[in-house]
Amino acid sequence: MFRKKPLWPKRKLVKEIPLNTHHSQLTFTIFDTETTGFAVGSHDRIIEIGAVQVKDRQVLEKTFQTYVNPDREIPFEITDLTGISNATVADAPTVIEAVQSFLHYSEEGEGDVWVGHYASFDLLAFKKEINRNQYRIDFPICLDTLDLVGYLSPAKHMLDLEIYASQFGSRIYERHQALGDALTTAHLFCELLHHLEDRGKKTLADLIEISNITKHYTKF
């Protein structure tokens, strides 16, 4: 039976973290992707990855950003939305090189837990790209700010990151760029942690109970 190659050592990403760990003791890697379209489960590809880290409700200075050569044309509407053109990615790394660089950034910063806004979309994009290139990987716990917002404000059902950031009074960076959206998500996440702690939700176990989408993407 054919076994896919590991993309990254499991022990370096999937850590044994006590569930009673207070969130202030964790380092969170907040990430985002831009893609050639929304059908990432089939034919669309990643064209940018951005990330930043949070610890003790503070956004750390060191960021990560890379364009990705998708090995296909970028539609005009995506270029219009993101500003990323075929020329932008012509000399960019392959998707596997880019993902490995992102994993190195997360590991180097001791990112215990990943966080995204509508993170299931980004994880599916990673999943398909990794599988397409005949690799496999185990990812760490991943939380979705959509779930955290939904817990705090159950009536909210929109996906729009900018609206949530505005409603929770957090900073808004340039939209539809992976690093800009990661930074916006990071500042929103810090605000959400304050509100969650006010409700007694302080530990990793609490955050996992509210949002652990990794259970659907444990091993790719």
TrEMBL record:
Segments traversing the membrane: none
Any one of the GO BP annotations: DNA replication proofreading
GO annotation, cellular component aspect: cytosol
Pfam families documented for this protein: RNase_T
SMART domains: EXOIII (SM00479)
The enzyme's E.C. designation: 2.7.7.7
Entry GO MF terms: 3'-5' exonuclease activity; DNA binding; DNA-directed DNA polymerase activity
Record's keyword terms, sorted: Exonuclease, Hydrolase, Nuclease, Nucleotidyltransferase, Transferase
Domain Exonuclease residues, every copy: 27-198
Name of this chain's protein: DNA polymerase III PolC-type
UniProt source species: Halalkalibacter krulwichiae
